[in-house]
Amino acid sequence: MATRSITAEVPMTPRMTEDPAGLVPGMAEVSAALFKVTGNGSVPRSTISLVQLRAGQIAGSTYLTVLHTGFLNKAGESQERITSVASWQDSPYFTGAERAALALVEAVLQPTADGERVSDELYALAAEHYEPKALATLMFAIGQVNFFTPVALIAKPVPGRSFTDPWN
Fold first, then answer.
1. Distance (Å, rounded) from C-alpha 11 to C-alpha 48?
2. I need a labelling partner for 109 at 20 to 30 A (CA). Which of 117, 147, 152, 160 fits?
């Protein structure tokens, strides 16, 4: 398989020309349900967006990182907080609860050679900051962004276009 030269410009067109959700009946309802589940109010929307931005960074998806950066900008988050998500471990801009959430998304998405991804210690730390409903919401928020990661990486919607219409 040929790879693109590192200096080649990336086209501003989607790889897949039709919206995958339009090709699969019921996908819009699934998407809406996922947004409803994660927007239940038990976890601040900003925390969910921080977690989903970190997931997009880990996945290497420009579409997802631009999307969630935009959500955070619209919510009034500071540029310091947004840009330091990639290096959150040594950033002074996050609360203990946000740090636990970011640690969870990293543990889930990054394989480890030394045991299970989410250790009992990490779970206990997250449970100190989040009641059971909020912890479940965080799990679903990580699942939500991972549900859309294959679309972002395979179909390659255009970064920066409207969330509802990245295919044009």
1. 30
2. 160
The CA-atom distances, in angstroms, between 154 and each of 20, 42, 81, 109, 120 are 10, 32, 29, 18, 34
Specify the residue for token string 């090709």: 23
How far is the C-alpha of 106 from the C-alpha of 55, rounded, in Å? 7
Q: How many residues does the chain have?
A: 168
116/160 Cα distance (integer angstroms):
36
pLDDT tens, position by position, 29-85: 998 999 999 999 999 999 999 999 999 999 999 999 999 999 999 999 999 999 999
**H or E element at residue 74:** helix 62-74
Distance CA 55, CA 119 (A): 19
Read off the pTM. 0.89
For 137-149, what is the mean pLDDT? 94
Residue 82: count of CB within 10 angstroms of its CB: 21
